[in-house]
TrEMBL record:
Database matches in InterPro entries: AMP-bd_C (IPR025110), AMP-bd_C_sf (IPR045851), AMP-binding_CS (IPR020845), AMP-dep_synth/lig_dom (IPR000873), ANL_N_sf (IPR042099)
PANTHER family listed in its UniProt record: ACYL-COA SYNTHETASE, MEDIUM-CHAIN ACYL-COA LIGASE ACSF2, MITOCHONDRIAL
Region described as Disordered: 147-179
Protein name according to UniProt: AMP-binding protein
Domain AMP-dependent synthetase/ligase: 10-355
Pfam families: AMP-binding, AMP-binding_C
Keyword DNA damage in record: no
Keyword entries, A-Z: Ligase
Superkingdom as given in the UniProt entry: Bacteria
Sequence similarity: Belongs to the ATP-dependent AMP-binding enzyme family.
Domain AMP-binding enzyme C-terminal residue range list: 415-488
Length: 506
């Protein structure tokens, strides 16, 4: 890591040396507030310098930075803060209402909302009065950390599980060899190497943008944060700053391709060297169109918060094998297992188990049994189903579990079903993913309901409890929901008709 480099956010500019100095002051302040190695510091922040400074500061002090999805409702945020035993939460001032149910005793540090975020998201009419410490004033009162850094820890990202409640992926501290291996992994899968000019349009609370952003902040010649993704502004930033490296999700590519042809041709994108996508399946026609537009700079990887990035492929490899997510990266191993735990031959689909040697082992915070359930012979599964071809290229073709990936965000039906069954008039329910041209998948709810129950009534009840992206886009009313003799819901009978003729179901 060098002190050279610039981080841009809107019209603001901060040198890497300044950002790292502020991170060291944050570390001192966190320690003074009682943070000890292994403690959690929650970050309820949009894309901003504060996110980077607080996250890096938590690492220096030996704590876990815990990003929080600011689309969540107060009840969802409170669950995460309680589950991770957060001692401190750093929050943008306009998001303070989301802490209405925060556990007692937690220290709140409120950060100002910078101009670019205020412009992107507008004023929050329900914003609470300033609460707790003020980030800037608090930080100014801290000395820079001058002790040796504590053993580093990766951010503890929460990922949903089959219980419908998010679970924190808590990794052990890496060895020096693992730190070096992770640096090589991020260079391979993201193109992040010293001197890059990087752009991040995705939210830092999400696992892959978090990994990309924290690494880019430490080694890029120029790192540009977008407050939120806007297709034409994304193109303008690439041209203006001669961006060569960025990370997107397929939904962003869909929105870029929907721009008028005249707008698409307006910008010089010749500086691009590596555009990486992951987090959700990409429709083949979308990826092919992006390669035709931008050239062979589109890269893809397969991985998950639990297992890291284990395969990668270039544009050329994908064009030769449409649909592949690539071959093994350095230090990765994969097995495709059938229901009996036997290895599947090339071309035969089974559950994907993988391991990345440079990633330290992990558990799910307070849920060791769930961690044991995803391991087989030292390999970890994210619940995906796929196959390897004769040349070792991985293809993902289904999911063993019910998770929905909409716009690169993991959504678990069981959480929505638990909320639905409490809605007045809902007698039975099933939630699943259906095809969506923009987001890859949309949330669909099949309901058995009392007479007079309306879609509007159901959605309003859910919006009071769940983040907006979890509220079903499609609601179907049925006279009965299919169940087998034991009472198990036959969700595929409801889901499969929506996917007929679509091709791959993820």
């Amino acid at each position: 890591m060098t002190s050279d480099g610039v981080i841009l956010s809107g019209a603001r500019q901060r040198s890497r040396a300044e950002l790292l100095g502020r991170a060291r002051r944050a570390a001192t302040g966190f320690r003074a507030l009682g943070i000890r190695p292994g403690d959690c510091i929650a970050l309820l922040l949009r894309n901003d310098y504060t996110f980077l400074e607080a996250s890096l500061g938590a690492t220096i002090a030996g704590g876990y930075a815990v990003p929080v999805n600011w689309h969540w409702k107060a009840e969802e945020v409170a669950y995460l803060l309680q589950d991770c035993d957060a001692r401190i939460v750093v929050v943008h001032a306009d998001l303070l209402p989301l802490l209405a149910r925060a556990p007692a005793g937690i220290t709140i540090i409120a950060a100002p909302v910078p101009p670019e975020l205020a412009e992107a998201y507008g004023p929050n009419p329900s914003a609470a009065a300033p609460t707790g410490l003020d980030w800037e004033a608090w930080l100014a009162g801290q000395a820079e950390w001058d002790a040796p850094p504590e053993p580093p820890r990766e951010s503890m990202v929460y990922t949903s599980g089959t219980t419908g409640r998010p679970k924190g992926v808590r990794r052990q501290s890496p060895t020096p060899d693992q730190v070096a291996g992770m640096a090589r992994n991020r260079a391979e899968v993201y193109g992040l190497k010293p001197g890059v000019r990087a752009l991040l349009p995705g939210p830092l609370y999400h696992s892959a943008p978090n990994s990309f952003g924290l690494r880019a902040a430490q080694l890029a010649e120029l790192f540009v944060l977008m407050p939120r993704f806007e297709p034409e502004e994304f193109l303008a930033l690439i041209e203006r700053h001669r961006i060569d490296t960025t990370f997107v999700v397929p939904t962003m590519m869909v929105r870029l391709l929907r721009l008028p042809e005249a707008v698409r041709r307006r910008y010089d994108l010749s500086s691009l060297r590596q555009v990486t996508h992951a987090a959700a399946p990409c429709p083949p026609e979308v990826k092919r169109a992006m390669i035709e537009w931008w050239g062979p700079v589109i890269h893809e990887f397969y991985g998950a918060t639990d297992i890291g990035a284990v395969t990668a492929c270039t544009s050329e490899e994908w064009l030769a094998r449409p649909g592949t997510v690539g071959r093994l990266v350095e230090g990765a191993s994969i097995r495709i297992l059938d229901d009996q735990g036997q290895d599947c031959p090339p071309g035969e689909a089974g559950e994907i188990f993988a391991r990345l040697a440079c990633l330290p082992d992990f558990t799910y915070h307070k849920r060791d049994a769930d961690r044991r359930a995803v391991e087989r012979d030292g390999m970890i599964t994210a619940g995906d189903v796929g196959y390897l071809d004769e040349a070792g290229f991985l293809f993902v073709c289904d999911r063993k579990r019910d998770m929905i990936i909409s716009g690169g965000v993991n959504i678990y039906p069981t959480e929505i079903e638990a909320a639905l069954i409490d809605v007045e008039g809902v007698l039975d329910c099933a939630v699943f993913g259906i095809p969506d041209a923009e987001f890859g998948e949309a949330v669909c709810a099949a309901l058995l309901a009392a007479p007079g129950t309306t879609e509007r009534q159901v959605r309003e009840a859910l919006r009071a409890r769940l983040a907006g992206f979890k509220v079903p886009k499609v609601i179907e009313f049925h006279e009965a929901l299919p169940r087998d003799a034991s009472g198990k819901l036959l969700k595929r009978q409801l889901r499969d008709p929506h996917w007929q003729g679509v091709g791959r179901r993820i």
